[in-house]
Design brief:
With about 325 residues, the chain is mostly helical. Helices cover about 70% and strands about 5% of the residues. It has helices at about 1-45, 60-65, 70-100, 105-115, 120-135, 140-145, 175-200, 205-215, 220-250, 250-255, 270-280, 280-314; strands at about 45-50, 55. It is globular and about 80 Å long. It starts with a helix and ends with a helix.
Length: about 325
């Protein structure tokens, strides 16, 4: 009897440890690819590379980063890019989702074709869009270089200088290259956002829409007063996804404009790349990476807070 009780206790203890051993591979992977790089980045942000090795400089990297004129300019470029990119993608995605929600013929084919931009890598998309406007042999160069359309000497998107700012040093209106970058990035992100909104639209009860039409509501009133409020959690998630991808994406900028002309499209993510791999100033690049991480955390916290408020109001 005593031996039976001991065996049961031993079996129970093994079962208690079983969940721990099952999640151990995941914990190890997270420690290797997330926790260790984060801690190393924090350590690196406090260091400076000298011929003799790494030297502790405290917050000097952050101070020098804030003192860079290009940093403030990149913040402005990032704001312009995020507003244009997220706004255009949200509006176009919502309109296309409305069309697909009307049960069009061959809707499945349209959705399949809509997926094509999403499966193309950012850097490939940037290269394709760059080839479209390359002078002399670009597909759109004949239109852009026509002085009758773009006077007096045509328009070179990748080299045209930025117009004079309207609000002090804030980079608005943006350079043609920034506008083109926003269009390319929106084209790349449009399929996912459209399908996300289409799935949300299809959850709106059809009876509610029909009853509102019987009550005399037109299409615009149905969209504004019924569909958008019911889709609001999905719209918040879509906006959050676009903001994060626009904040951290560098492939499109790298392959399409390389931050140019000049610094007209130098957003924070590309500034991080240029400081780290262009100047090999890894300490200052790590400081900028931490600032971008803080911005991402604020975006995540804000989205979660909005989502919780929506659940409470429901």
């Amino acid at each position: 009897m005593t031996q039976t009780v001991k065996r049961r206790k031993g079996t129970g203890s093994k079962r208690d440890w079983l969940p721990f051993w099952l999640i151990m591979p995941t914990v190890v992977v997270l420690l290797v690819i997330q926790v260790y790089p984060a801690l190393y980045t924090f350590w690196l942000s406090l260091q400076k590379r000298e011929p003799s090795g790494w030297t502790f400089v405290g917050l000097d990297n952050f101070r020098r980063l804030f003192g860079m004129g290009l940093f403030a300019e990149s913040v402005g470029h990032t704001i312009v890019f995020l507003v244009g990119y997220a706004g255009l993608t949200m509006v176009m995605g919502f309109l296309i989702a409305l069309l697909l929600n009307r049960k069009l013929r061959l809707a499945g084919l349209y959705i399949t074709l809509l997926f094509i931009p999403w499966i193309i890598a950012d850097i490939i998309t940037g290269m394709v869009f760059r080839l479209l406007v390359t002078p002399d042999y670009g597909l759109l160069s004949g239109i852009l270089q026509n002085p009758e359309i773009f006077s007096p000497d045509g328009l070179s998107i990748l080299t045209a200088v930025r117009p004079k700012p309207w609000f002090g040093d804030f980079p608005f209106p943006p350079a043609p290259a920034m506008i083109y970058l926003i269009l390319a990035a929106s084209w790349r992100a449009l399929p996912f956002i459209t399908l996300l909104m289409l799935a949300s639209m299809q959850t709106v009860p059809h009876e509610v829409i029909e009853s509102s039409r019987i009550d005399g509501a037109n299409s615009w009133q149905i969209v504004r007063r019924i569909m958008i409020p019911l889709m609001l959690p999905t719209l918040v998630v879509a906006l959050f996804s676009l903001t994060l991808s626009g904040m951290n994406g560098v492939g499109m900028v790298f392959s399409l404009t390389s931050g140019g002309p000049g610094t007209s499209t130098e957003v924070l993510s590309y500034l991080l790349y240029s400081i780290g791999w262009g100047q090999l100033n890894f300490g200052r690049a790590a400081a900028l990476a931490l600032l971008i991480a803080v911005l991402n955390w604020l975006l995540i916290s804000g989205t979660l807070r909005i989502t919780r408020l929506e659940h409470r109001s429901d």
